[in-house]
């Protein structure tokens, strides 16, 4: 069954690239949505939860980890898989984000093959 | 440990190469030719101040921590447009607004910074990276103030465009108790 996906990144360019990469990876993705910041993402998730959220870390006003904590506080999003997509590679940051409730991590830059490898476990 | 400029140069170029190959699909090489027309010039005056000429996009991204400074990407408007179009899988004839081009350059700066950081963090230490800002104009200057060092790499993109990668930095000295 196709999964619904939300892309959260303050860069419109990166949101388009991620969308393009997800399509190129030929993953079983259904409905897609985007948000340019954490507040917008939360509002959309409160209206309709998604199966997978791809989320940047460094965003203004509300960072990715802050958004993750708030999403984990929404009962409707209990089954939402959260995958961080970021340039941050420091193990401490990666560990903190996973402890805050994220399920996976993809580093930028990325290829469709890398995306497929990282996302496939969450599509089954 | 004080990091040397060669190490930073190599990390900067390798980081940019990784980003351009993976996400932009454009070849990037260090320019070796003397007298090649460039979009940007660097000045050794005023410590680490670089003076940029022509109508260019400058995408600086600052960092703090065990080393503080600014990583920058500077290129012509046409180069920036080509980069953005390639990242988005668009044709050269497709229209792209300045805001979209600036956003793309900001993301390039962001990814090059991340790739650079991953290569130097064992040597340099912790770096906290900001969100990039991009400006467009003539005679743009980037500076991190006095007593800073700089490394500049002139590059050639897709055998067509000249651009500049720069790193202005000041390494924090650890205080002895």
What can you see in these coordinates?
The complex is a heterodimer of chains A (124) and B (177). By secondary structure, chain A is an alpha/beta fold. Chain A has a single domain (3-123), classed as Rossmann fold (3-Layer(aba) Sandwich), CATH 3.40.50.2300. Chain A has helices at residues 12-24, 38-47, 64-72, 91-99, 112-123, and strands spanning 3-8, 29-35, 52-55, 81-86, 104-107. Chain A has a 5-stranded parallel β-sheet with strand order 2-1-3-4-5, sandwiched between helices. Chain B has 177 residues and is α+β, with helices and mostly antiparallel strands. Chain B has a single domain (5-171), classed as 3-Layer(aba) Sandwich (Chemotaxis protein chec), CATH 3.40.1550.10. Chain B is built from 3 helices and 9 strands; from the N terminus they run αββββααβββββ. In chain B, a hairpin with a 3-residue loop joins strand 8 and strand 9. In chain B, helix 1 packs across helix 3 and helix 2 packs across helix 3 (98-124). The longest helix of chain B is centred in the middle third of the chain and has 27 residues, at 98-124. The two termini of chain B are 17 Å apart. The A-B interface holds A 10-14, 16-17, 20, 58-60, 86-90, 107-111 and B 18-19, 22-23, 84, 87-89, 100, 103-104, 106-107, 110-111, 113-115, 117-118, 121, 126, 129, 131.
